């Protein structure tokens, strides 16, 4: 039986890593992937790295070590790194027969493991010249958005900054959100709750509110994979929580947890221009009640946010000042 081993930082996990693992998987009966690093790379924490690899290779065993596992410093000697891996393999009760790498150190790594684990281990070199995927994680970290084509979409999605537009009824969320997505040449996550409300002719049940929150998050996650640095989000599960509490005086605990979802930028649209009644909205008193609820929740949750106010044109200008056509640099 061929038992393979692949070790790396995977910070971030990219197409070259996928190529290496695919090659190893095609030659093995069993494969273990180990990942560790002593450095705190942005957006590359242990949990994310595990999720990235597992989504690409759900059939493979993935073990990611973090600071609690006393990982060696990235600058430590080869012998220290190799002995750490050997010790972890013994703890995991996994004895590989083959080690797969694209690095020059691969042969010495396999020899050290052979000695330490008292078992012959063969090194298999995969595309050492990087001819198939001429990229490194270091290059990608230097310019994630410029190198996004080297990242699997589900990995790039975690580097996308989510801009959430929230506000009371008739404050221009959808209009401004779609407009901003065009300005930044990126994706727009429209409001699923409005779509379901229209489908059900305004008759939403209590269970519908949880569904709305879940579908909204699913939509964001899907669109982030094809976004361009930013994802514009027309509302958040916090809005859904408001409607659940307002209509039913309670909320599903799962919706309450979804409402804690964090966004990179939160824009609160003020209700300071005349309300436009489209037949679906309530009155001015309700609009002000909703606005004050948002302000209170944002403060209590210690969430930073920016106000935009005035006419639609004035709000567009304020948004441009917040996000000054950054798409030209990153697209």
UniProtKB/TrEMBL annotation:
It comes from Rhodoferax ferrireducens. Residues 162-315 form the NadR/Ttd14 AAA domain. PANTHER family: NADR_TTD14 AAA DOMAIN-CONTAINING PROTEIN (PTHR37512:SF1), TRIFUNCTIONAL NAD BIOSYNTHESIS/REGULATOR PROTEIN NADR (PTHR37512). GO terms for molecular function: catalytic activity. This is NadR/Ttd14 AAA domain-containing protein. Gene3D superfamilies: HUPs, P-loop containing nucleotide triphosphate hydrolases. It comes from the Bacteria. Pfam families: AAA_28.
